[in-house]
């Protein structure tokens, strides 16, 4: 596996080694032994489907003490995935990184606790699978407005397909993360 550190401490792009032959292919998507940078125990897997290109999910997070680290991959179609540093004491607070994840490139992104997560589908029928190290907790669920100018993500569209939760999420300055 090739593991590349990003400008955000603790966020990694992971490129699995793919073994192919005439039958198809095989890859490891996670190995605690081969990914020592990822210091968490995953306890839940999630799977989402976005029917329409331009579907935006995020910027989502869970408030402490139920924060979640995530290992994200795209198993159908393609997405642009984003990690946003929400740690107020971090030198990269409010900064973000993105990576294209697709069924074709098989890349993954590891997002540690203390970060927001979002993605936008680049194709119809995008499927995303991710592991978390903490269970989903509705009472700790949080979101930041996708178009928050303080974060300044260029999504490639001004009119994404949004849930009511994402349309009505607060600005970062109204969120008391820690």
User: How many separate domains?
Assistant: 1
**How many strands, what sense, and barrel or not for the largest sheet?**
6 strands, antiparallel
Query: Strand order within the widest sheet?
Result: 1-2-10-7-12-5
Arithmetic mean pLDDT: 96
Order of helices and strands: EEEEEEEEEEEEEH
* Rg from Cα: 16 Å
Low-pLDDT residue intervals, each spanning 5 or more residues? none
Query: What proportion of the residues is helical, as a percent range?
Result: under 10%
- Give me the CATH fold name: Jelly Rolls
Structural class: mainly beta
Strand composition percent: 35-45%
The CATH homologous superfamily is called Jelly Rolls
CATH class: Mainly Beta
**The CATH architecture:** Sandwich
Distance between the termini: 34 Å
Shape: globular
Number of strands: 13
Number of helices: 1
Describe, in plain words, how this protein is organized in 3D:
The protein is mainly β and about 180 residues long. The protein has one domain: Jelly Rolls (Sandwich). About 0% of the residues lie in helices and about 40% in strands. The protein has 1 helix and 13 strands. A 6-stranded antiparallel β-sheet has the order 1-2-10-7-12-5, with no helix packed on it. Strands 9-8-11-6-13 form a 5-stranded antiparallel β-sheet, with no helix packed on it. A hairpin with a 6-residue loop joins strand 1 (about 1-5) and strand 2. The longest helix is centred in the last third of the chain and has 4 residues, at about 165. The protein starts with a strand and ends in an 11-residue tail after the last helix.
């Amino acid at each position: 596996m090739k593991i590349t550190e990003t400008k955000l401490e603790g966020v990694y792009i992971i490129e699995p080694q793919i073994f192919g032959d005439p039958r198809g292919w095989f890859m490891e998507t996670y190995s605690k032994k081969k990914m020592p940078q990822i210091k968490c125990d995953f306890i839940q897997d999630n799977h989402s489907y976005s029917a329409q290109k331009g579907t935006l999910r995020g910027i989502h997070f869970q408030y402490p003490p139920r924060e979640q680290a995530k290992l994200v991959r795209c198993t159908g179609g393609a997405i642009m995935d984003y990690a946003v540093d929400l740690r107020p004491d971090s030198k990269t607070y409010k900064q973000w990184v993105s990576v294209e994840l697709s069924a074709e490139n098989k890349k993954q992104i590891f997002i540690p606790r203390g970060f927001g997560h979002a993605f936008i589908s680049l194709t119809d029928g995008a499927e995303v699978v991710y592991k978390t190290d903490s269970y989903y907790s509705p009472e700790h669920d949080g979101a930041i407005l996708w178009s928050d100018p303080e974060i300044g993500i260029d999504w490639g569209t001004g009119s994404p397909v949004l849930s009511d939760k994402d349309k009505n999420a607060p600005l970062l300055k109204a969120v008391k993360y820690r």
